[in-house]
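Lecture 7 notes: from sequence to structure.

We start with a single chain of 506 residues. Read the sequence below before looking at the structure.
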Amino acid sequence: MLEQRETDGAIAPRAGRREWVALAVLMLPVLVISIDNTVLGFALPQIALDLEPDAAQQLWIVDAYSLVLAGLLVAMGGLGDRFGRRRMLLIGSAGFAVVSVLAAFAPTAAALIAARAALGFFGAMLMPSTLSLIRSTFPHRGDRRLAIAVWATAFSVGSAVGPTVGGVLLEHFAWGSVFLLAVPLLVPLLVLVPLLVRESRDPRPGRFDALGILLSILALGALAAGIKHVALEGLDVVALGLAAVAVAAGWGFVRRMRASAAPMLDVDLLRIPAFSGAIAINLLSVMALVGAIFFLTQHLQLVEGMSTLDAALLLIPGTVAMVATGLGVVPLVRHMPAHRVVALGLASSMAGYLVVALSGDALSPLLVAVAYGLLGAGVGAAETLSNEIVVNTAPPERAGAASAVSETAYELGAVLGTALLGGVVSAVYRGSLVLPTGIGATDAVAAQETLAGALDVAERLPAALGDALAAAAKAAFDAGALATAVTGAALMAVSIVIALRALRRA
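Now the structure, written as tokens:
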């Protein structure tokens, strides 16, 4: 059957071979962005040895990308609606590939930070464009639901395989290889997208709103920066200042969008429970995924003593679970309401965190694999349906900006996963670490910062004292992991309530 009547009475054509091949091409930038979210962490030790950044520069190497990306997503989504989503995708892909090469061969820490910020700029053009182009490429809802399932699965899989990819590359090549990975993924896109994907834009874009774009950048950029600052430095004057900028710019952005006849983003969409609920579930699901990767990989490598590659391979079942449930919910929602399917997925993620929380000191690699499998299964199911709800709730002409809101939730979720859940691990670790007698002041400071620092100090100490420090540090870290798992389970419980209430009429 080549076409099907949609609920509004219009005839929607079914997708053909060209559209499905186009979808495969559109997944390439999704994989690039999602892998880049998690792959860099494994390269940091090599980067530190080669470029010798100070502590602040090392943090900016990690954060510059996500802060710029989160700040620009809504603005770039609006520009794509106006000037063409395919055009923005091509510009972003070309720029991302070129800057990736520059980052791979950066001669100094400052040059790498600048390259990471530029990658965030071009990366912000990619993600809103892919999701909004899926909507225009797949007008039939059944086809679109499957396409969005593939999109969400690709994002989750990219985030999950980032550590594996990093482990393989860094075992054989220099740290620049993690940046060069983007080139073979994006070059085919530059050739195939003009042949397979039709241009899509808002037919009535209204006037160009430079002030609205600036306010969105200020609001999101200050919010992301403030979250990072609180996690690293605590609540201080700088954090309060960033919060004030975010609130003021956000308030100004909302007022300007409501006063505009053709707003870049219809903020009244957030009044629709299904739309705002789906955005919240996006944020919390990614937060749970990235936060779990943060502390589970450290547990496997530093507590259990596994290699980077072996630890990454242990998480593959969770990645497979993401793929299976992300695609499996497409036929399932024909027989069960979407809000119940999402709630069941989130319950699986909650169970994954509870496995960690209830295991206590007995958290073994097998239990980590089980926990991550349950978490991955839940994230795959929840992300697929929540993204479809976001896309279908927004008017077609605002697809880019609405998609950008969903992408902003992704990026803020990634920032929060590391900052808040990672912050819980770090805070509990520092608070519960009991240093054995005989450790010098300088070594004590290093040991109290991170588990990796404590293990490094332990290797330099006499055997008995080093063993005692290593055991104490591992116990303190697992206490932090326990507290984080309880926090993650609570967040998933909140998500379940949101799904059952807000998505009921989706």
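The chain is about 80% helix and 0% strand. Keep this in mind for problem set 3.
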